[in-house]
Amino acid sequence: xxxxxxxxxxxxxxxxAGFDEQRFGERxxxxxxxxxxxxxxxxxxxxxxxxxxxxxxxxxxxxxxTRLYQILTExxxxxxxxxxxEPADADSGGDGGADGGDTAAPGFPQFPEDPGGAGAPxxxxxxxxxEAATLELDHGVRYRRLSPAGVRGLNYFESVYPPGAxxxxxxxxxxxxxxxxxxxxxxxxxVDVGFETHELHPGDSIMYPSTTPxxxxxQGAETAVAIWLNLG
Length: 232
Description:
It is globular and about 45 Å long. Strand 2 and strand 3 form a beta hairpin. It is about 20% helix and about 20% strand. It has a six-stranded antiparallel β-sheet with strand order 1-2-3-9-4-7, with helices on one face. The protein has helices at about 5-15, 20-35, 40-45, 50-55, 65-75; strands spanning about 135, 140-145, 155-160, 180-185, 190-195, 195-200, 205-210, 215, 225-230. The chain is an alpha+beta fold and about 230 residues long. The chain is built from five helices and nine strands.
């Protein structure tokens, strides 16, 4: 059991954000069918069985961070779509950056629309900690969204990695579009980028192109919390 100071707050946020594993899986299925892909076709692109993908879509299996990125990359969808912020029709998949809109999936907090989808919404947007949308992935990794509203080309979130957690199920690497900037708040994170390994302690920051194969893990004895900004 994770008894770190961060765990109770994260668990509370998860419960109050109304995270629904089945609805999350349904969202992935909506994105897949909206792009005209069969279960077998997408599974083949991901290098997994159709049965495994079906379990994710039915809410029976949580994907790892890496698997989630792989799925969204194949669907040409931004990370925010996992929070239910991208229309599930095929027309929304062209540039992979359509955030906002009023078609957020039930079971996820509703966020204000991004007018025109080109930048931050006008006026003040506020989301309290307990209301922030949260994803709970494989290995107990949790993502908590920090941006109150969708902004095209930008994903801003907090990650919580329990001891021994990897961003992938089999310590595999992932690559996708964009740029990543991370800052460790507590604990120690190991970030492998290409052939280099970087150990980040509280206050340390890292930046790298997401197109370079990378993976994240917590090889320490305490929960690691970091803030991430994904651009592109």
